[in-house]
Amino acid sequence: MEAPKILITGATGYIGGSLLTHLLTTSPPSLKTATYTVLLRTASQTSLFAALPVTTHVLSTPDSLAELRALASNFDVIVNPAYATDPGASRALTLGLGDRLKEREREDSGSGKSAQGAVVPHIIQTSGTSNLSDRPHSNPTLFADLGLALETETDATSTRSFTDAPHDQARILHTMRKLEAKEEYPQRSATLAVLDTAKQVGVRATVLMSPTIFGPGTGPGKTASIQIPMLVRAVRRSGVARVVGQGGEQWDAIGIRDLVGVYEGVLGRVVSGEGEAVGGDVLFTTTTRFSWRELVGRVVDAGTSLGYLKAEEGKRVEVKGVELKEFTKWLGLEGMEGFVELGFASNARTSGEVARGWGWKGEDGLEDGIERDWKMIADAEGW
C-alpha cells in the first residue's frame, strides 16, 4: 500500500495549523507513513512551514476553482478548514477527489488489477454547529414555521438538540436543507455542497461540525479562535459585559486540543481503510454545554481573576441583557446582526456520540481554556 497523500487547507489558520502540528508530533501508526501537503494562497506563507516535514503548494491563482480541482485529484484525503464557508471551492476539492477515483478505476481496468489497500478518496470538511442554529430574537418561530419542531415540543421557541448517532443523521441533513432553503448561509452551503457532491462522484465525506472552540492554537499561523476572543476583547475594551436578552440560549464547546484528537480519529480510520466505519456524514465535537450568560460570566470572572478587568471594590463586572442591535455594536460588528444572532445568541445544542464510541474523550476544561485565551490575547495586545 502506498503512503496516503493528505492535503490540508488552511494550515495557517487556527484549526488547520493546530491539527498539522498535532499530526506531526502525535499520530496513530496508520498515519506515520502519510505524506502531508499544505495548501497556501501566497508564497510569503511558505516560511511558516520551513522547519516542518511537509510539502507546501502555493496556488498560482488563489480563486481558480479549476486549479483547486486539478490539485485535489493528486490526493487521497483532503482536510478542508480553509474553505469551510466557500461552497464553490469546497465542491471543487470534492470533484477533484472524484477525478482521482475515476483515474484509479481506469488504471485498474487497463491493468486488470485493483489497487490493493488503496484509500477511497475522502474529504474531511470543517464546519460549525451554527448550521443548525435557530433565530430566537429575530424569528422565534423559525423552526415551527419550517415544520421542524419536534413532536415532544409544545413551545415553538424551545431548544432543540441533535446527536450524531446514526438514527439522527437524516434529521440533521433535513434540518440543514430546510434552513438553507429559507436562508442561505455560506458555511451550511459549503457543508451541503460537499456531502451532495461526494455522493454524486462516489467519494466519501465526513463533516466535523464543531461548536465554540476555546484555547490557544498550536499552529505556525493564527492561534486564536473566534467567539471567546471576540468576547474577551469586547469586555476589556468597554469594561462592561453584555448578552442578548436573558442570554439563556445554549451552545456547546470544545477545547482545540480535544478537537484535533477527533480529526486524528477520523483520519486514522480513513487511511487504514475504515472510512465506512467513521460513523456518519456529520460528526459533532462537544465536551461541555453553556448558556450565553454563563459563558460571558466566565469570561468576566477569568479576566477579573487574572487582573485584566477592573471593577468597583467588592463588585463584579455586571452581565447585562440588551437588544441584539446593541449587543452587535458592543461586540464591534455593527450592522452584522444576522451573523451575530447565529453565533452569539442562538440555540445550537449538539452531542458528539460517535467519537466517544471510539474511546475518545475530551479533557480540556472550559474555565481553564478561557483563562488561557485571556493570557494569549493579553500578551498579543500588550495589556
Question: What features would you describe in this structure?
Answer:
The protein is α/β, with parallel strands linked by helices and 383 residues long. Strand 4 (77-80), helix 4 and strand 5 (122-128) form a beta-alpha-beta unit. It has helices at residues 14-25, 29-32, 65-72, 87-111, 142-145, 169-182, 186-201, 227-238, 256-271, 292-305, 324-331, 337-344, 354-358, 366-381; strands at residues 5-9, 35-40, 55-58, 77-80, 122-128, 161-163, 204-210, 212-214, 241-244, 250-255, 282-284, 288-291, 319-322, 349-351. It has one domain (5-371): 3-Layer(aba) Sandwich (Rossmann fold), CATH 3.40.50.720. Helix 4 packs parallel to helix 7 (186-201). The strands form 4 sheets. A 7-stranded parallel beta sheet has the order 3-2-1-4-5-7-11, sandwiched between helices. A 3-stranded mixed beta sheet has the order 8-10-12. The chain is globular, with a radius of gyration of 21 Å. The chain has 14 helices and 14 strands.
